[in-house]
UniProtKB/TrEMBL annotation:
It comes from Hylemonella gracilis ATCC 19624. The keyword Nucleotide-binding applies. This is ABC transporter related protein. PROSITE patterns: ABC_TRANSPORTER_2 (PS50893). Keywords: ATP-binding, Cell membrane, Membrane, Nucleotide-binding, Transport. GO terms for cellular component: plasma membrane. InterPro entries: AAA+_ATPase, ABC_AA/LPS_Transport, ABC_transporter-like_ATP-bd, BCA_ABC_TP_C, P-loop_NTPase. GO terms for molecular function: ATP binding; ATP hydrolysis activity. Residues 6-247 form the ABC transporter domain. It comes from the Bacteria.
């Protein structure tokens, strides 16, 4: 039996009387490209916050690579290979992509507090930063201040920063949010090209992107998993169509869905 990258059992959280997430049994296979979809307010970001340790669950458990991490703090989960990006840009606008990634690598290496010291012993770090930027198709922009980058490139840089931690699991909270349509395809192309041993769970509202890139889809509605499966099954599920009925920005496209 293969170990799952992430697995939750009966996971839930209430904020006062409000049950934001309830009885979630989520499984992320090693190497997965899995989408978490659901209407606004369904609890998707809250679920990511539970997985990363930002929130403590009020019910259930979380396992990462077979180990129970339910009570582990966020930084411990990060050190053990869990990385995330946020819906909102977290970048320093005046830094270059190269320096941003170098700082993230130093952070991983535990040198975050002394990043300003001379870099003469950091050739490997710069080499790694360049390689990472190349993988994210940002190498030509390595020295351009972040503020001058197109928004899609900024979102790619955020993924680069998450990857600098060398995660085994990557959680992407709406990586294409705010990105013009002509750039979001490339962004997901790059996500699709990430090494196959990195397990990816992504939240995405654009169904065209979801059905193009997800191998598996979990549908969250009112804090609960409504259904989960291969894109083709999700696309034809009348309950999913019903959830999205009347929503103008969402279109289910079975013809583009993975089998
Ligand atoms: N810290 C909190 N305290 C109280 N309520 C919260 C808190 N965090 C989230 N919620 C509530 O939980 C519900 C789910 O929110 P969440 O942001 O997880 O939804 P979502 O599916 O990510 O939505 P969207 O697609 O719009 O980003 C919302 O009703 C939200 O107001």
């Amino acid at each position: 039996m293969s170990t799952l990258a992430l697995e939750t059992q009966g996971l839930g959280i209430r904020f006062g009387a409000f049950q934001a997430v309830a009885e979630v049994n989520l499984q992320l296979q090693v190497g997965a490209r899995q989408a978490l979809i659901g209407p606004n307010g369904a609890g998707k970001t809250t679920l990511i916050n539970l997985l990363t340790g930002v929130y403590k669950p009020t019910a259930g458990s979380i396992r990462m690579n077979g180990q129970d991490i339910t009570v582990h703090a966020a930084d411990r989960r990060a050190r053990n290979g869990l990385a995330r990006t946020f819906q909102i840009n977290q970048l320093f606008p005046s830094l270059t992509p190269l320096l941003s990634v170098v700082l993230a690598i130093h952070e991983r290496e535990g040198q975050g507090a002394t990043w300003w010291r001379p870099y003469q012993r950091s050739t490997a770090c710069f080499d790694e930063a360049h390689a990472l930027l190349k993988r994210l198709r940002l190498d030509a922009l390595a020295q351009v201040p972040v503020a001058e980058l197109a928004y899609g490139k900024q979102r790619l840089l955020e993924i680069a920063l998450a990857l600098a931690a060398r995660p085994r699991i990557l959680l992407l909270d709406e990586p294409a949010a705010g990105v013009p349509e002509d750039e979001s395809g490339e962004l997901f192309d790059v996500i699709g090209e990430l090494p196959s041993d990195i397990s990816v769970l992504f939240i995405e509202h654009d169904m065209k992107l979801v059905f193009r890139f997800a191998q598996r889809i979990s549908v969250l509605v009112a804090g609960r998993i409504l259904t989960e499966g291969a894109p083709r099954d999700i696309a034809h599920d009348p309950r999913v169509r019903e959830v999205y009925l009347g929503s103008t920005h969402v279109g289910i496209h079975p013809e583009t869905a993975h089998g």
